[in-house]
């Protein structure tokens, strides 16, 4: 959880911002919790024939 300070009309209002943190490769990212629709568990990835090397494949999201 990250903390942010907001100044409004000359006075400081302290609040907290809740984030979802995740790692892609060697980098860590964070997104405001209220911008996240859902978190999906890691599942088996099926390879796609003739796809570029940066595309790992597809997953069955809804069954």
Key attributes of the depicted protein:
two-stranded antiparallel ribbon; single chain; elongated; 41% strand; mainly beta; 63 residues; disordered N terminus
Strand-helix topology:
Layout: E1 2-8, E2 11-17, E3 19-24, E4 27-32
Antiparallel strand pairs: 1-2, 3-4
Structure overview:
Residues 1-8 have low confidence and may be disordered. Strand 1 and strand 2 (11-17) form a beta hairpin. Strands 1-2 form a two-stranded antiparallel ribbon. A two-stranded antiparallel ribbon has the order 3-4. The chain has a domain at 2-35. The protein has 63 residues and is mostly beta strands. It is built from no helices and four strands.
Summarize the structure.
The protein has a domain at 2-35.
As laid out across the biggest beta sheet, the strand order is 1-2
Count the helices. How many?
Answer: 0
| Series of H and E elements | EEEE
Question: What is the β-strand count?
Answer: 4
- The helix content is under 10%
Mean pLDDT: 82
- Rg from alpha-carbon coordinates: 19 Å
* Biggest sheet record: 2 strands, antiparallel
Low-confidence stretches: 1-8
So what's the oligomer here? single chain
Structure class: mainly beta
Gap between N and C termini: 33 Å
Instruction: State which percent range the strand residues make up.
Output: 35-45%
Shape: elongated
């Amino acid at each position: 959880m990250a903390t942010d300070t907001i100044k409004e009309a000359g006075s400081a209002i302290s609040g907290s911002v809740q984030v979802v943190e995740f790692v892609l490769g060697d980098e860590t990212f964070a997104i405001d919790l209220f911008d996240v629709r859902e978190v999906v568990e890691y599942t088996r990835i099926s390879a796609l024939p003739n796809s570029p090397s940066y595309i790992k494949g597809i997953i069955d999201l809804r069954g």
